[in-house]
Amino acid sequence: MRMRVGLLLLFILTVIIAGCASSNGTPAPDNTTSETVTDTTEPSASTAEPSTGTGKDTGSHILVVYFSATGHTAPIAEYAADILGADLYEIKAKVPYTEADLAYYTDGRCDKEQADPSVRPEIDGKVENMEQYDVILIGHPIWHGQAPRIISTFLESYDFANKTLVTFCTSASSGLGSSASNLYGLVPSSAKWLESRRFAIGSSKEEVAEWLSEIGLEKTAEAEEMKIQITVGSRTMSATLTDNASAKAFYELLKKGPVTIEMHDYGNFEKVGPLGTDIIRSDESITTTPGDIILYQGNQVTVYYDVNTWDFTLLGHIDGATGENMREFLGDGDATVTISIK
Ligand SMILES: Cc1cc2nc3c(=O)[nH]c(=O)nc-3n(C[C@H](O)[C@H](O)[C@H](O)COP(=O)(O)O)c2cc1C
Questions:
Q1: What residues are paired with 261 via a beta bridge?
Q2: What domains appear along the chain, each with residue ranges and CATH number?
Q3: Which atom of ligand 1 is closest in space to residue 201's alpha carbon?
Q4: In the chain, which stretches have pLDDT less than 50?
Q5: What are the two backbone dihedrals, phi and then psi, of residue 254, each rounded to the nearest 5 degrees?
Q6: Nearest 10 degrees: CA dihedral of 221, 257, 317, 82?
Q7: What is the pLDDT of residue 28?
Q8: How far is it, in rounded angstroms, from Cα 45 to Cα 65?
Q9: What's the confidence (pLDDT) of residue 94?
Q10: What is the b/e burial string over 208-241, where b = at least 16 CB atoms within 10 angstroms of the residue's CB?
């Protein structure tokens, strides 16, 4: 009897496992060592899809950070991020500011914080990948003529040595005053400060664009298109990376030199091989098309010659790819694939 119950349980278990496997559609590539990698769905630094930078830099190097207690500074930050193709990060207080806190000249929380330059209100969360950025724009309201103390917390939370920094602010009527220059001493002296700007509440995107242009920050062609090339044997094809944090991280990696990946076939739809390092993942459910370049589990790169649906990260696409020319380009069996910046 006990034996029969055991067999029945085994049967039920087998049916459940088979059901799970088939409901997942096509399988992922095989070597599946899982690493915990920061997912860009975290709002650490990325909602306005980033890309490029200062006149000379690339967009993935620019971060627009802002603190906005009543929502006036936020749109200015969003305009700047959009114009520059930069990443966007909102500073949020660990203890949010209530309406009572924000009522000034009431000896409330804000009044007290602003009266004491040593106060450092705690920030909820952090920018995980600050080393990625060369240029950081920091937006804030003016509180009693100065930046809110939480901006001091932010500036003291990272190493800004050799980075380019610039603040912008909104206020009811006050000018910039000493609000920017009073922050300079909070970061290493090797940081380079650009000229700050105070915006009136409701300022337009054109005004923001004008200021960015004045201080030499603008989107470059490189930001718009990250072109790479892929070589297999004697043939090379060009590809365009997509606009997400992973593709930008991949592009940064390629800037250090070409990457060669030993790939093998998997599932009769892709070639896959180890990247040799982890890069940030932006996984989502994707149905591939031939020519897609995919980051799998943050540390493997696949090039598709057919269709597969799975949760992974699109890095880019080979220009002019078709199922036929991809199979021909990648060849049969194992392939040594070299990827470099075009
Ligand atoms: C505590 C506090 C102090 C403020 N002090 C000033 C000030 O000194 N000068 C000024 O023009 N506006 C002052 N304001 C108004 C804000 O600077 C203005 O509303 C700003 O646009 C708010 O930005 P935000 O909505 O992004 O937080 C103050 C607001 C608060 C809450």
A1: 337
A2: 62-214 (3.40.50.360), 225-341 (2.40.100.20)
A3: 21
A4: 1-59, 221
A5: -65, -25
A6: -30
A7: 34
A8: 9
A9: 98
A10: bbebbeebebbbbebbeebebbbbbeeeebebbb
Q: Which residue type is seen at 205?
A: K
Report which protein residue has its CA nearest ligand 1's atom 9. Answer: 174
Token representation of residue 76: 């200015």
DSSP 214: H
Burial 320-338 (b: 16+ CB within 10 A, else e): ebeeebbeebbeeeebebe
DSSP code at position 58: -
Q: Which residue has the tokens 């009769």?
A: 268
Q: What is the dihedral of CA 44, 49, 51, 53, to 10 degrees?
A: -70
The number of beta carbons lying within 10 Å of the beta carbon of residue 195 is 12
Residue whose token pair is 């459940």: 16
Contact 281, 37 (CB under 8 A): yes
Q: Is the CB of 253 under 6 A from ligand 1?
A: no
Residue ID of nearest Cα to ligand 1 atom 30: 143
Query: Residue for token digits 């939480």?
Result: 150
First to last CA, the chain: 70
